[in-house]
């Protein structure tokens, strides 16, 4: 008997998802556990499995559609089976809850969604040491000049729809996106439109360059942004934050890192360790020395964790996500570096598994690569503390009674006062500082 396959809840916080790409098409045979499609949740792009065996008799949702959990996406049954009643049921359910965007291709044709782009403009505790590589989706070429019909449909609606890469190229070229006609799904502007627009503008003499005009704009709130807002507001209103600042002598740390990376290069290793890799290692060892910071409030008790799982805040398009380095205290600096880079790469591709960005014990947020000297971060609940890391700064310092050139690093530990008292937090920072100021101990 044929059944309707529904949008699956792929994470605990997921209420809706975007159907990114169908991996099966109408007429394909499927079995329980086979992957039907890729779905973008509020955290990552994840695989949606089939729960029934049979043949895909109908595709009910187009690629790019935003669907609530439980929405019909396909009908699976025996070949040749009558599905008239199921189609009516699916149509009734969809009309009540789903507004699917017009598709530029049949449901059985793959149209990959845009890849994640650069860091968002507004994120409270974003940290990332690398810039994501931008890629662009392939779609059918435009049937008309991107400027032959005037303003794009999205511009007429008051909001320009463009892929992250198209926005970046337009910004770099000084192009006004409202003068570009998009050829992507639902009039979305993609890379090819920008390139064609530059060519068309050059030959036609029309100026694509944006003027000095600032316009009011209402931006839609993504599922990820809603989740971030909810979690951070809950953290700030339910966890009594207090903050401890400390300046650390970073001369030895910088020197050790340079030598370590030089040795790695000579041995043929492609990886280059960051300051943050050493900071994660030092944090893990400090948590072993002061386990009270590696704890969580549980209303009727305080849970002192028996593991050290350190999160690294990574900026992605539309927000941030915190993948965890599991058992960080048992990993070398090199292992930590490799793990962080691999996790950050998959985070930006929205390919993390739920278990990779949940249930940690401590978080590090580093904005030093953006030139930020000092900041305070919001605790990643239910953890009891988060370490905010600034830039390594060159400045005069006093050593042995003399003023000499030196390098310093500023950090700020945000603590949940229900779990961590001031003296405990200060003690953790002191242990952390000793590890960084004597970095050879981190290599043991």
From TrEMBL:
Its cofactor is (R)-lipoate. Residues 2-77 form the Lipoyl-binding domain. Pfam families: 2-oxoacid_dh, Biotin_lipoyl, E3_binding. The keyword Transferase applies. Residues 161-198 form the Peripheral subunit-binding (PSBD) domain. Keywords: Acyltransferase, Lipoyl, Pyruvate, Transferase. It is an enzyme of class 2 (transferase). Forms a 24-polypeptide structural core with octahedral symmetry. This is Acetyltransferase component of pyruvate dehydrogenase complex.
């Amino acid at each position: 008997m044929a059944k309707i396959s529904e949008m699956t809840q792929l994470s605990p916080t997921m209420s809706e998802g975007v159907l990114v790409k169908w991996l099966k098409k109408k007429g394909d045979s499927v079995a329980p556990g086979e992957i039907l499609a890729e779905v973008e949740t509020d955290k990552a792009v994840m695989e949606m499995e089939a729960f029934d065996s049979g043949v895909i008799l109908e595709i009910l949702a187009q690629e790019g559609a935003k669907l609530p959990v439980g929405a019909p996406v396909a009908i699976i049954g025996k070949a040749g089976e009558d599905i008239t009643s199921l189609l009516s049921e699916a149509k009734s359910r969809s009309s009540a809850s789903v507004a699917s965007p017009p598709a530029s291709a049949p449901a059985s044709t793959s149209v990959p969604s845009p890849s994640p782009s650069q860091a968002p403009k507004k994120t409270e505790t974003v940290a990332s040491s690398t810039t994501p590589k931008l890629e662009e989706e392939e779609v059918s070429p435009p049937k008309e000049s991107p400027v032959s019909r005037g303003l794009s449909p999205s511009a007429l609606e008051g909001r320009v729809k463009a892929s992250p890469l198209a926005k970046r190229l337009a910004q770099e070229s000084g192009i006004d996106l409202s003068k570009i006609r998009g050829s992507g799904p639902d009039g979305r502007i993609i890379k090819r439109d920008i390139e064609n627009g530059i060519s068309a503008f050059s030959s036609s003499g029309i100026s694509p360059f944006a003027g000095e005009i600032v316009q009011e704009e209402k931006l839609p709130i993504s599922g990820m942004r809603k989740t971030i807002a909810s979690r951070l507001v809950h953290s700030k209103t339910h966890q009594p934050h207090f903050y401890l600042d400390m300046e650390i002598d970073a001369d030895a740390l910088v020197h050790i890192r340079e030598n370590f990376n030089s040795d790695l290069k000579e041995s043929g290793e492609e990886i280059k360790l960051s300051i943050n890799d050493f900071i994660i290692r030092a944090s893990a060892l400090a948590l072993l020395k002061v386990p009270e910071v590696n704890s969580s409030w549980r209303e009727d008790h305080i849970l002192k964790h028996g593991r050290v799982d350190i999160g690294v805040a990574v900026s992605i398009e539309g927000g941030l996500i915190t993948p965890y380095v599991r058992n960080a205290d048992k990993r070398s600096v090199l292992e930590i570096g490799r793990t962080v880079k691999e996790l950050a790469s998959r985070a930006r591709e929205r390919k993390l598994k739920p278990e990779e960005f949940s249930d940690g014990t401590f978080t590090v947020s580093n904005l030093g690569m953006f030139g930020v000297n000092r900041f305070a971060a919001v605790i990643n609940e239910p953890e009891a503390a988060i370490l905010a890391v600034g830039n390594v700064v060159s400045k005069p310092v006093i050593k042995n009674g003399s003023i000499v050139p030196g390098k310093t690093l500023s950090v700020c530990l945000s603590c949940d006062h229900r779990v961590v008292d001031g003296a405990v937090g200060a003690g953790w920072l002191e242990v952390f500082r000793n590890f960084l100021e004597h970095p050879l101990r981190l290599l043991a």
